[in-house]
Design brief:
disordered N terminus; alpha+beta; 8-stranded antiparallel beta sheet; single chain
Length: about 190
């Protein structure tokens, strides 16, 4: 009887694994499949927010100021270059390096939390991009208080997530980012002084 149960369970597991996206072949092709899953900036932010506990959520808007999405991340119109620089700290010389963007900003005060995700164009080095954003954010003049922490993470080599804000909110965001994006790697985590 035990052998029959083990055989049935083994068959069920093998059957279910064979239907999970049909990933076969080398580990390199599997890695490419994982990378493509996270190249959409809006999906990258939505996936993070989906695992937040109710008590950790905060009032936010997503997207650009002209077309905001309430209480969720939103797609950002990258033609809004001044807004990209002023709100998210994306330097003008880096705007040509992105293909798509999404954002989420704390409704009460952007310094409490501001996050963005960018899909980089082919050939753009995530580390160079992150360094340019870091330099820009750390050089900002802050009004109405100052954020505590800056975080920049590479998700799969083509999507970079940047965020700054109050220490406890940033710690929670970092935890959720790394828990849902297994291929994410923190490039920069720095205090904002």
């Amino acid at each position: 009887m035990k052998r029959a149960i083990v055989a049935v369970l083994t068959a069920a597991v093998l059957f279910s694994l064979s239907g999970c996206g049909g990933k076969q072949g080398s580990s390199e092709s599997n890695q490419e499949s994982e990378v493509s899953e996270y190249t959409e900036p809006l999906e990258a932010l939505e996936k993070i927010m989906a695992v937040y506990d109710e008590e950790d959520l905060f009032a936010m808007y997503g997207g650009n100021q002209e077309n905001p999405v309430m209480d969720a991340p939103g797609k950002f119109d990258i033609s809004k270059t001044e807004e990209l620089e002023n709100i998210f700290g994306l330097p003008q010389d880096q705007i040509s390096n992105i293909e798509d963007a999404a954002s989420m900003v704390h409704m009460m005060n952007a310094n409490t939390f501001t996050g963005a995700a960018y899909r980089l164009k082919d050939g753009v080095d995530p580390d160079d991009f992150a360094e340019a954003v870091k330099t820009s954010v750390l050089a900002k003049q802050w009004l109405c208080g100052q954020p505590d922490t800056l975080l920049i993470a590479d998700v799969g080599g083509s999507c970079v997530i940047t965020a700054f804000g109050e220490a406890a909110i940033m710690e929670n965001f970092r935890y959720h980012l790394l828990s849902v994006h297994e291929d994410a790697e923190v490039i920069t985590e720095a205090p904002i002084a």
